[in-house]
Amino acid sequence: MKSLHSKREKLMKKSLEYLIPVVVGLAIALIIRTFLFSLVSVSGNSMDPNLYNREKVVLVRQGQLKRGKVIVFKAHGVDKGATLKTLYVKRVIGLPGDVISYHNDGSLFVNGKKQSQSYISRAQQKVGTFHLVKSEAKDVSLGTGRKFRVPKNKYFVLGDNRQVSNDSRYYGYVPRDKILGTVWVFWWHEKQKLINDYQP
Fold first, then answer.
1. Is position 41 annotated as part of the catalytic site?
2. Which of 21, 56, 179, 190 has its CA 20 to 30 A from that of 49?
3. What is the pLDDT of residues 87-126, one digit of tens each?
4. 111: region left, alpha or beta (phi > 0 left; psi from -120 to 50 alpha)
């Protein structure tokens, strides 16, 4: 009887030796995914030519929100057409308090300073920027001589492919609490500097 009890103890001990690292590993993976990093998929062509449809990118949950940074946000409650699980990938153009103006030639100004927009071609800057601004995009006004200020705790975002992108021109500003984090791509990605390190 003692021998049987001893065998059970040994078996339990051995099982725990294998089980504990697995449980700890799963817990660490869950923490990383919830609070630090996860993979997301780009949906659609709105970030062409820098990110492509169905391309996998890393979501950095604690990433710093800066002008020019590519972000991921929950679209539900921002865009009327978005479902509960829809995520959008866009580029931050305006931070809270920024004064933004667009000129008819595609030039972009933030707080009176012209932005380079070197992540897209000159033709791409001009074509599509002035697609109809819908009524949902409250207080957004595009065109030479027009300016608007980004409200507190909100962000003005655009897709790199201005001609097809569904962005702040259509649904207005993105609230801070909808933003999950910033996008990061691996160093071998051909547009890595325009995603990870872009400075306007």
1. no
2. 179
3. 999 999 999 999 998 877 788 899 999 998 999 988 888 7
4. left
Query: Which of the listed CATH numbers 3.90.1150.10, 2.10.109.10, 3.30.1370.60, 3.40.50.720 matches domain 42-195?
Result: 2.10.109.10
What is the maximum span of the chain, computed from C-alpha positions, in angstroms? 91
Question: Which residue is catalytic, options 6, 43, 85, 90?
Answer: 90
Burial annotation 172-188 (CB, 10 A radius, 16+ → b, else e): bbbeeebbbbbbbbeee
46 is catalytic: yes
121-170, pLDDT tens digit by residue?
Answer: 888 887 755 554 555 555 565 555 678 899 999 999 999 998 889 998 88
CB neighbours (10 Å) of residue 50? 23
Cα separation of 171 and 151, whole Å? Answer: 14
Angle ∠(27,28,33) on CA atoms, nearest 5: 100
Which tokens go with 103?
Answer: 């000129």
Q: Which of 6, 10, 15, 46 does the annotation list as catalytic?
A: 46
DSSP state at residue 176 = G
The pLDDT value recorded for residue 156 is: 94
